[in-house]
Amino acid sequence: MQTCQSFPKASRTQLSRFKITNEKQLQAATSEKHDRCMQNVWSRLVQGCRQHNGVVSDADVNKGQTVRYRPVDNTKPLVTAEDGELVTGFTFFTMQNVRPCNLDKAQNGARSAFSSGFPGLECKHCGDTSNPRRFFYRTAEILTGNYAHIPSHIASCKHVPDEIKTELARLKESHITLKHSLDRGSQKKFFNNIWERLHQ
To answer: Which of 185, 165, 196 is nearest to 53 (CA)?
Structure first.
């Protein structure tokens, strides 16, 4: 901001003053207060896309309450046949082997970056066990660029049938080559579709 030409001079000056006192304020603030502040900021950011579904109100956000998410339907398909035209067979097959889930603090540890109930993905094959493998992403963009550990889990999960692991390995062999032949932006559209179904 200090280097942005469009940033007002008065605001730049004020930012410089805050920077001087920031170190002392961070030392004085408790970790709990800092985390609460950041959660409030995030709640206000996501409020716009959640309030239309009746999940959270303006009053809830202004009070700093945790965003409440609707329970997902883990039987709802995340991908369609049409989606298969947007990505390689490897990516499509990978996402066919996960399903929607909600973050459960008791089962998923701290994960302080996410509110309880936040929608995510879980392995279809170990999802009903006492130790399911779950994946949570803050945005569709992060999902697009960081989904690689999902196929890694599927390839090693003891609950995944051998025939699925074999098919995943087969599709992986041609993944890189086929990926270069995809239309520009198609993979992003694929994961945006998944994100919208997960968060609608």
So the answer is: 196
Burial class (CB in 10 A: 0-12, 13-18, 19+), 154: buried
Task: Tell me what pLDDT residue 123 has.
Answer: 97
Question: With bands split at pLDDT 50, 70 and 90, how would you rate the model's confidence at 50?
Answer: very low
Asked if residues 133 and 120 have their Cβ atoms less than 8 Å apart, the reply is no
Q: Tokens 């390689």 — which residue?
A: 88
Residues paired with residue 122 on neighbouring β-strands, in sequence order: 99, 134
- Give per-residue burial for 107-131: e unless 16+ CB within 10 Å, then b: ebeeeeebbebbbbbbbbbbbeeee
**Measured CA angle at 154 (ends 148, 159), to 5 deg:** 160
Burial 159-197 (b: 16+ CB within 10 A, else e): ebeeebeeebeebbeebeeeeeeeeeeebbebbbbbbeb
Phi and psi at residue 57, in whole multiples of 5°? -105, 165
To 5 degrees, how large is the angle CA 151–CA 112–CA 39? Answer: 125
On whether the CB atoms of residues 131 and 153 are closer than 8 A, the answer is no
Tens-digit pLDDT profile for residues 99-134:
999 998 765 555 556 788 899 999 999 999 999 999
Taking the C-alpha atoms of residue 44 and residue 123, their distance in angstroms, rounded to an integer, is 30
Beta bridge partners of 100: 121
